[in-house]
Design goal:
Distance between the termini: 35 Å
CATH superfamily: Gcn5-related N-acetyltransferase (GNAT)
CATH topology: Aminopeptidase
Number of strands: 8
Number of domains: 1
Number of helices: 5
Oligomer: single chain
Helix content: 25-40%
Structural class: alpha+beta
Radius of gyration: 16 Å
Shape: globular
Strand content: 25-35%
Length: 189
C-alpha cells in the first residue's frame, strides 16, 4: 500500500531499507523519544522490517510506512493497535528532514487512510497520539494535524525502565483537521 502526497511518499519498508533504518535509529532524538532499542543494531533493523512490519501488515493490526522524499528514506509513520474502530499513531524523522513540514504531510496521509471508508482506508472512528512529556516536536505535529489534547497520564509510560509522564491527544473521524486548540503551554515549547 503506497500513499502519495505532494512531497512525500509512504510505502512499506523493505529489506533494502535496513541499513538506512539502522543508521537513523541511533539518532539521539529518536532514542530519547521513541521505544526503539538502544543501542540500535543492524539486527534490530532486520527484525523490524522482517518481523514487526511484515507481521503487522499480515495481521491487520499494524500498518507501518517508510516516509520517502524521492529515493531517500527519511522516517517512519505507523498506525498501531488497530482494532474496534481505533488505532494509535506513531512517527519519527531523520535529523536532516526535520523542520520542513514533511512529518505533518506524512501524518496527514496516514490519517486520511485511517479514516477513509472502503478499500482506500480503515474506516476508523478514532486515532490516539501518545508522547513522553517534553516531546514538543511530536506534539507540534499532532496539534497541526487536528488532535485534541486529552491530558497527562502521570508516570503513565515506561521508557527504558524509567516511568515518565505521558501526553495524550485524540482525533475523531468527525473532527476538523485543523490545528487543535486547548493544548497546554508545556506542549508548545
Amino acid at each position: 500500500m503506497v500513499l502519495t502526497g505532494e512531497r512525500v511518499v509512504l510505502s512499506v519498508p523493505t529489506e533494502a531499507d535496513v541499513d538506512r533504518i539502522a543508521e537513523l535509529c541511533v539518532d539521539p532524538a529518536i532514542t530519547e523519544w521513541t521505544t526503539v532499542p538502544s543501542p540500535y543494531t543492524h539486527d534490530d533493523a532486520v527484525g523490524f522490517v522482517t518481523g514487526f512490519v511484515a507481521d503487522g501488515w499480515a495481521s491487520g493490526r499494524i500498518r507501518t510506512w517508510g516516509i520517502r522524499v524521492g529515493d531517500d528514506l527519511v522516517g517512519m509513520v505507523g498506525l498501531h493497535a488497530i482494532e474496534d474502530g481505533g488505532a494509535e499513531i506513531g512517527y519519527w524523522l531523520a535529523p536532516e528532514a526535520r523542520g520542513r513540514g514533511l512529518m505533518s504531510e506524512a501524518v496527514s496521509l496516514a490519517l486520511d487512510h485511517a479514516f477513509a471508508q472502503g478499500p482506500a482506508g480503515l474506516g476508523l472512528q478514532r486515532v490516539v497520539w501518545h508522547a513522553f512529556a517534553g516531546n514538543i516536536a511530536s506534539a507540534s505535529v499532532a496539534r497541526r494535524a487536528g488532535f485534541r489534547f486529552e491530558g497527562v497520564s502521570r508516570l503513565g509510560a515506561v521508557h527504558r525502565g524509567v516511568r515518565r509522564d505521558d501526553w495524550q491527544a485524540g482525533l475523531l473521524a468527525t473532527d476538523p483537521r485543523t490545528a487543535g486548540e486547548g493544548w497546554p503551554p508545556e506542549t508548545l515549547g
